[in-house]
Amino acid sequence: MTSPTVDVHAHVLLPEIEALVAGMPAHSEAKELDARRNGSDALAVSGPMVRARIPKMTDVTARLTAMDAQGVDVQLVSPSPSHYHYWADRDTAEKVYRLANEATTAHCAQAPDRLRGLGLVPLQHPDLMVRALDHALGQGLAGVEISSHAPGHELSDPAYEPFWSRAQEAGAILFLHPFGCTLDERLDQWYLSNTVGQPAENAVALSHLIFSGVLDRHPGLKLIAAHGGGYLPTHIGRSDHAWSARSDAGAGCAHLPSSYLRRIYFDSLVHDPRVLGSLIEVAGADRVLLGSDFPFDMGSEDPVGALRGARLPETDFDAVRGGNAAALLRLA
User: Which Gene3D superfamilies match (predicted)?
Assistant: First the structure.
């Protein structure tokens, strides 16, 4: 039987969350920082772009119509990363993740045969993350979405160990999707905050997970890296060399960094068939999943066509198109 076509990188917009945080001083400060990092030209384009796409991110009928046009059977829906709000205090953070989990569940419940959901956890409060993950799973969500870091915390922080343990034990999917880049105003022109910043953040976050030994201690984690894992998969040779040549680089993980790429899942959203071919070569065809970044302008309006452009063997094409994700999500 042919597997469904599954897009693992699709977003939902949750106005309830933005209403919750509106007017909070810390939220205003975070918005100002985001504006500086992106630059005025990017904000002038992004505002209208997002507004035009609100129906596809909030209305299930509009979402399904778009999915049909793309030939996508199932989406794994995650909250817009703009909802992370890692600036929030403990009380606000708990309200945010509960609202995100419940609202995403309600959205997906309108088309349960075609939509699966991911929730949020407060990465800035490591001691709340297990409870937040359990709340998401209790709602029937497949797992949670996280960014590449939170203020004062890299993903290698030992404070996250209980979260990784619980995620592995529960078989939860973790979708690593950066939001913002700490290179700040260096990327405030020409939308470099996204085109350079997002791949850089992916590479940094994955390197923290690999070099710190997180993936040694939790080999069963179901981790999906957005944007094809950024720069890391195509430049993993430099990591391997450092691991072999330097005692400080090789101290934290047991194996060559490149070997860990076959323990991570990656979406296919790299915008270049040659890069997609390289990703499949280093990670394996069984570790790449179709992703579109629906419905944003930096995504793909034809993810299946983009995948076809890589000219993969038929078995690999079918695996990436949906077979791998169907197995991961345990779709009937």
Answer: Metal-dependent hydrolases
